[in-house]
Amino acid sequence: MIVAKYRSREVISNYIILIIFALIAILPLAVLIFNSIKPQMEFGVNPLGPPSEIRFENFSEAWVKGEYAKVFFNSLKLVAGSVLLCLAVSLAAGFSLAKLNPKGSAIIAVYLLVGISIPAQLYIVPLFLLWKEIHLLNTHIGLIIIYTALNAPFATFLIRSYMIRLPDELFEAARLDGANTFQLFFRVALPLSWPVILTA
Q1: Residue 182: Cβ-neighbour burial (10 angstroms; 0-12, 13-18, 19+)
Q2: pLDDT below 70 — which residues of the chain?
Q3: Cβ partners under 8 Å of residue 105, min gap 6
Q4: Where are any strands of DSSP class E within 23-106?
Q5: Distance set, CA 10 to CA 1, 2, 15, 22, 189 (Å)
Q6: pLDDT tens digits for 31-82?
């Protein structure tokens, strides 16, 4: 009896905690949805509550007047370019550090950790001046390079940590069959690394 009462109290306390966390996650989304269908005059009067009048025209006005189509496709370009370039650089670097063992690979791994820990605000001004000199300000390629440089250290470290656990016997067997470095990368390492590629 005592154990059953204790367990029921424990279950109730667990549910209370889970409900609190669910509300913390759901309430901001609910406010966002409410504000998206409110009339403009109601933002200042009732910023957090449900709308008194539902106005679906807000979406079409945002798409047309706010040029959301242009914003959406610009974001799509930046995300696709950054992800593809970051993955290409990080996969090559991670494979090299994990399986080719270049000289100073341990120092490079430490350098990657330092690169992850340095906040981007430290080099905004020199980066701005450099981008101005090489005419990359206000360009998509300039932003893609910055996003890639910011995310590549972490992605490289993640991919290296995964690839270092791949069995060396597979790579040695491929070498014995005459595979070169590119074939080791494309035919052995990449097919086995889909989990970490999707994570990165």
Answers
A1: exposed
A2: 1-7
A3: 97
A4: none
A5: 14, 12, 9, 18, 47
A6: 888 888 888 788 777 778 888 888 888 888 888 887 888 888 999 999 999 9
